[in-house]
Amino acid sequence: MLINFPYIKRDTLVHRLDPRTKIILLFAFIFGITQSSNFWFILTGFALAVLYYGLARLTWKETKAAWFYIIVLAVVLVIVNYFVTAGAVVQGIDLSHQHVLYRLPFLQLTSKPPFVTPGPLTFSVESITFILTQLMRNVSIGLFVVPVSYTIDPAQMGVAFRGMGISDNISYSIDLSLRFLPSLARDFTTTYDAQRARGFEIDKLRGGIFSKIARMAPMIVPVIIGSIVDSEDIISAMELRCFGVGKRTWLIRLNPRWIDGLLIFIALFCLAAVTALDILGNFTTLGAIYFLHTQGIPPALIP
Q1: Cα Rg for the chain, rounded, in angstroms?
Q2: What is the per-residue pLDDT for 42?
Q3: Distance of CA 9 to the CA centre of its chain
Q4: Burial class of residue 158 in the structure, from the number of CB atoms within 10 Å of its CB (0-12 exposed, 13-18 middle, 19+ buried)
Q5: Spatial separation of the C-alpha atoms in residues 42 and 142, rounded to whole Å
Q6: Backbone conformation region of residue 242, classed left if phi is above 0, alpha if psi is from -120 to 50, else beta
Q7: Are 93 and 129 in contact (CB under 8 A)?
Q8: Contact present, 119 and 59 (Cβ < 8 Å)
Q9: If we measure between CA atoms, which residue out of 82, 76, 80, 75 comes closest to residue 123?
Q10: Pseudo-torsion of CA 270, 284, 141, 94, nearest 10°?
Q11: What would the DSSP string read from start to end of 81-120?
Q12: Which backbone phi and psi does 117 adopt, to 5 degrees?
């Protein structure tokens, strides 16, 4: 089966890590960094993410397509969230005594008709700090996500999830999706080239949206029919091999090293510690425990 995956074969520390280690590091980092909006906590996580990404030695030219979507998504989420809440985006923080820098005429959402009323758009130290932490959080998660795609051989993804205790059905579904979807993209490209050779130009479609969809039939129908036929072939092959009847074996065997065990232990320990501090912070305001529930505003931002 065709494999079309942004995997880049390279001899780096991150590439040599067990695929399960990289997946566990990713989820541990996500679950840990989303438990706080403290500026210094997020900044520490961002620094660790930059270090981890740097060890993968991935260049901008190789990953710019992925980073384009990550950066656009991060900026849009943060900016839209800021405007929708009219600057009151800091959950759990008392904004009645915020350090207001500027107010602009804007709109506010209300729970009563007409649901939108005039109101100020507040720019404060608290809201700006929150925007910075949100951007750092989203980008730092991206710094852990990108190496998963670019440093793990796609042939090892299914066996990696199986090695983490996921069932054969789910593991093989993940493995199959990484192979089937690129095949579908290849079929679409082949069909598009064939239809263009017959005079079909997708750029010259006229009419409304439904009319354009109807005129796309020469492109959509062959791809859908072909994908259904390919799926039936895969299903038949799996049934002939009695897939799902008993425990399966995998051709590829993963061999973790001591550094994999160490990193997994550190990641899970840090996640447990952060979760414990987050829970305890709901019952006490002691600085050493409660800091995850504070903003940690940098002194340089306070006027």
Answers
A1: 25
A2: 93
A3: 22
A4: buried
A5: 14
A6: left
A7: no
A8: no
A9: 82
A10: -170
A11: HHHHTTT---TTS-GGG--EEEEEEEEEE-SSTTSEEEEE
A12: -130, 155
Supply the pTM of this predicted model: 0.78
Largest distance between two CA atoms of the chain: 73
CA dihedral 268, 269, 272, 275 (to 10 degrees): -100
Query: Which strand (E) or helix (H) includes residue 121?
Result: strand 116-124
The token pair at 79 is 């900016």
Contact assessment for residue 292 and residue 36, using Cβ atoms and an 8 Å cutoff: yes
Q: Is 185 left (phi over 0), alpha (psi -120 to 50) or beta?
A: alpha
- Across-strand partners of 104? 121
303 residues of the chain, pLDDT tens digit each: 334 457 888 889 999 999 999 999 999 999 999 998 889 999 999 999 999 999 999 988 888 888 998 999 888 888 877 777 655 555 445 555 677 777 777 766 666 777 677 767 777 788 888 888 989 999 999 999 999 889 988 888 888 888 888 887 888 887 777 777 777 777 777 877 777 777 766 666 566 666 666 667 777 777 788 778 877 887 788 777 777 677 777 778 888 899 999 999 999 999 999 999 999 988 888 878 888 888 888 887 776
Residue recorded with tokens 């960094």: 33
Enclosing H/E stretch for 124: strand 116-124
The structure tokens listed for 211 are 């009319």
* Residue 33 Cα distances to 14, 26, 46, 88, angstroms: 21, 11, 9, 21
**DSSP string for residues in 199-234:** T--GGG--S-HHHHHHHTHHHHHHHHHHHHHHHHHH
Q: Can you read off the two tokens belonging to residue 183?
A: 């095949």
Using the 8-state DSSP alphabet, how is residue 294 labeled?
A: S
The amino acid sitting at 90 is: V
- Tell me the CB-side half-sphere exposure of residue 183, using CA atoms within 13 A: 16
